[in-house]
Amino acid sequence: MKFRCSQQVISKAINTVSIAVSNRTTLPVLKGILMIVEEGEVTLTASDLDISITTKFDAEVEETGSAVVMAKLFGDIIRKLPDESITVEKESEESVRVSTISSEFNVISLPVEDFPEIGKREEGDRSLVIDKNIFRKMIRKTSFAASIDESKGVLTGIKTEIEEDKMTMVALDGFRLALANEEMRSASKDGFIIAAAKMNEIGRILAEENSDEDTLQLNLGEKRAVINIGRTEMVLRIMEGEFINYRDIIPKESNTQVIIGREMFMSSIERASLLSREGKNNLIKMTVKENMMTITSRSEEGDVKEEIGIEKEGNDLEIGFNSKYMIDVLKEIEDEKICLYMNTSVTPCVVRPTEGTAYEYLILPVRIPAM
Fold first, then answer.
1. pTM here?
2. Is residue 337 part of a domain?
C-alpha cells in the first residue's frame, strides 16, 4: 500500500471520519481509521458501531492495499505537517510510514481483519432525497432538547417523521420539547429515531461539506439509516423503543397569548440570568400585565428588573422559568417576533411563530417560591 496526496486533502478526510472514532471502547481497532487504497482513490472509514463514516478522495497510487492506523496519532501527525505532498506507505503488517520532503514518521498498523464490517444495504431500504441545509437546520433547532441521561433510552434521540408533504423532527427531555417542521415531498410515510449526539455530528459534516450537491440521499432500513452526500457516507444505528406521544403533551388552548420581539426578549433574559445563576433552577420570573412584560430575578448577591412592551390577549399571568431553557429556544429562532401561549403558572409555555408552523417549543415552568 502506497499513495501520495496533498496534506489538505487527507487532513480534511481524517477530520470527517474521526467524528465516528470511539473514545470509550476497549477494542483498540475502534480507535483506528481503516485506509483502503485502490487505483486512483483512497477510502477512509471509522466506526464506533453506532455511527460509521466513510469518505473518499483522489490520490496518486503506487500500490494498492489497506491498513488501520490509530486515529488520534495519525490525525495529529497529518495536521502538523506542512501543506505539501505527503506519502503514506505500509512498510509491513505492523507499520505505516508517513513522509514528506523533510519529515518521516512510522506508526503502528493494526490488523485490517479486526476492523468491523460496515453493513451492506438492507433489503427493502426506503430512499429519500432531502435538502442538506434544511436537514442540518432541523437538527440544530431540536437536538438541544434531547435528554443527556442515557437511562432515558429513546429520549436521548431525535425522532424524525416523514409524511407526504412535510418532515418533522422532535426532541424532548422531560423539561422541554423542541419541534421543527419543513415542507417536503415524499412518496410514503416513514419515521426513525437516531441519537441526538450522532445527529449533531451529522450536522457538523453537512456544514463542512463543500461539494456542489445541495441534497443528501437518505436510505432507511429497519436498523440503520444511511446518509450519502458527495463522496461521504454515514451509517447510523436507528434506536429501538417507543417515543413519547409528544402531540398529547402540547396544550391545544391558551388563556394568555403574548407577541414579543425575540431579540429584546432574549437580551433581557440573558441579563436577568446573570443573577438567576446564583440561585436555584436558574429562576427568572415573568409577569405579564396589560401591554408590558416584567422580567425579574434575585439572589443573595442582588436583584434585577427588566421591562418589555408586548402585545397581549387574554389574562394577566405571573410565571417562572429556568432561564437557560428559554435562552436555548430563543437562540435557535430567527424570527423578529414570536408568540408565547400560556395558561397558568404551573402549566407549560408554548413558543410558536407569529405565522406558519415552522417550529414549536414547549418549556415547563418552575414554581415561584414565596418572597
1. 0.90
2. yes
